[in-house]
Amino acid sequence: xxxxxxxxxxxxxGEPLVRRLVARxxxxxxxxxxxxxxxxxxxxxxxxxxxxxxxxxxxxxDIVINLAGESVGGGRWTEARKARLMESRVAATTALVSAMExxxxxxxxxxxxxxxxxxxxRGDEPIDxxxxxxTGFLADVTQRWEALARTAEPLARVVILRFxxxxxxxxxxxxxxxxxxxxxxxxxxxxxxQWMSWIDRDDALRMIEWAIDHDAARGVYNATAPNPVTNRExxxxxxxxxxxxxxxxxxxFALRLALGTQMADEMLLTGARVLPKHATTDGFExxxxxxxEALKHAIxxx
Length: 302
Description:
Layout (H helix, E strand, L loop, with lengths): L2 E5 L6 H10 L3 E6 L9 E4 L8 H7 L2 E4 L12 H22 L8 E7 L10 E2 L9 H14 L6 E7 L1 E3 L4 H11 L12 E2 L1 E3 H13 L5 E5 L5 E2 H12 L9 H8 L1 H9 L3 E2 L2 H5 L9 H9 L3
Parallel strand pairs: 1-2, 1-4, 2-3, 4-5, 5-7, 6-13, 7-11, 8-10
Antiparallel strand pairs: 9-12
Helix pairs in contact: 2-3, 3-4, 7-11, 8-9
């Protein structure tokens, strides 16, 4: 049994992760600004950068998992919101490392979330963990996020997971796509040529568990399935899985009008062909490596 602290443990990835860890017998506490939102694990109130009793619990934990950060897709990118997106990650990560400093001799692991947005728009270029960072707002946020996590290297075994598009029916990108596709109004976005590097949520959770349990795991891992697809192919496969047509494109100008140019371009109209080279080399095995099967699993279809 391990003592595990999860920041962001009531979210789209965090809550099912906490449930899995509790089910396997770990002692799990969730760092949260809103204890009433925690339905699995023990809630610990925190409000970084403010200090508190939570710091001692972090300092004594075997595993610290950092999933904290405001959702990048939760609203239009105004300048104020972009500042909050950056600050939520900076404050949480800085606070966790500061808490670990209170017990420097503790053997521990820090697993910190990041995102494949760090690579920016890379066209058809195959990308792995050794590829250079790209440009743009998401690339700036993730580079800052990761740099702060790496400051814990003298204090912990540090694992950074760069998540792709996480597929589950009750949240994230797939939940937003299901209704229009079920109504027969789905299709590619913009040109449809942009790459979508995805991962089934269960595989994302399994990769976190794998990082917990494998002491040799360290450094950066792309948390993406080994078979990325273009947006046009994603729409085609989702339509086929739902037995619906997927031929109605969403024009780029409409997305830019709805979301703003920067948000639409970085989140929907461009992408990167990201491969999980480090994970597969280190022995992680994906349960859902193919998109059609992963979508059926995520949606709950046989």
